[in-house]
Amino acid sequence: xxxxxxxxxxxLNQQQQQLAAQAQAQSQQLVQAQQLAAAQAQAxxxxxxxxxxxxxxxxxxxxxxxxxxxxxxxxLQNLMRIAALNLSQNTTxxxxxxxxxxxxQRFDKSLEEFYALCDQVELCxxxxxxxxxxxxxxxxxxxxxVPTATKPDTVQTESQSYTQYLSMIKSQISCAKDIxxxxxxxxxxxxxxxxx
Length: 196
Prior knowledge:
The protein is mostly helical.
């Protein structure tokens, strides 16, 4: 029957739209990776393999945030489009006019997708803030940086090795223990003088 073919065409059309959106997102990621490689080549830096760039982007919350923003924008546009279509259909039904029997996308699913992307963006921003806080604290207490595992190729001449970092931490711990013991001894002396 003609009604059934119309109903089957709508889900196929939605699947095609989703596949097209995924392909567009992948092509945007590829273009971004190519632009990054070109910028590094102009700056005189060696171009990193694509797998290594993708691994760095997965580890870097700011890069992940930048990748999520276009997806969030598309999700918001899709959410507004579905809301407008549903509102329009409900208005025609409320006015007593016959509406099309075309199946509309569900608003709650698109809203849930939008909220999921918002949650991912929030997590990326919180993680970036935590990384920044740790970096600031590290630079306060250890002026010479230790190269990170995610970016070992960006070793600076002023950085220190991990063994140097461990010895510095051990000396800080022993200094803190000495201060703690001195305070305990001082408090015992004050307590013993108070009893006399």
